[in-house]
Amino acid sequence: MSTSNNRDLEKVSAESSEEPLPVESDSNDSKASSKTDDNDKYGTTQRGLKSRHIQLIALGGCIGTGLFVGTGATLSTTGPAPLFMSFVVISGVVWVVMQTLGEMSAYIPTAGSSVPLYVKRYVEPSLAFAAGWNYWYAYAMLVASEVSASAVIIDYWSNPVPVAVWLTLVLGTIVMLNIFVVSWYGESEFWFASIKIIGILGLIVLGIVLFFGGGPNHDRLGFRYWQKPGAFIPFAAPGNTGKL
What is the model's pTM? Predict the structure, then answer.
């Protein structure tokens, strides 16, 4: 009798072990399914940029008119020390901002994320609205600033062609590259950024050569201009007051 009872208990336990365990519904799965449904309904954007395009766009974007054009006027007006100090301060601010953006994007990766999106999520929607319009205004002015700087650089060689012609050509090229296929834009940015990086490295090597007297007249510059007229040049006021 006891043997039959044990067999019945073993049979019941075996049947119960074969039954599937209940699976709890996960909110992430529902969100993923809804996102898939939206992609099937509306479609997704095509990614035409390659990894090398993204990397060179990021590197080339750090080299602009502020380095090629703005530093010359600042160096001649205020001297090398204030120029170096300003670069250190701005680099510190940019480093903090980029570290913050990197942490937020790594914490919650979102497709199509931007600064206004992070401001809306972590701070306030009204501030995100203002940040969005600020971005629009900044980049609208940036195009005009870059085109004007390119015309100034081209006009340096006393070209007889009117400046308006160069403005039209440069602006037309920018518009055309942004209208057509994104792969063309990425390829053009790749080569333009490569030229800028090669140019910067060439200028650094040239500066080292001239520093040690490797120029045509073999005049060793060293820290001559750091001593005369000095690291700080008076600006907007005479004497030490203008140096501050």
Answer: 0.65
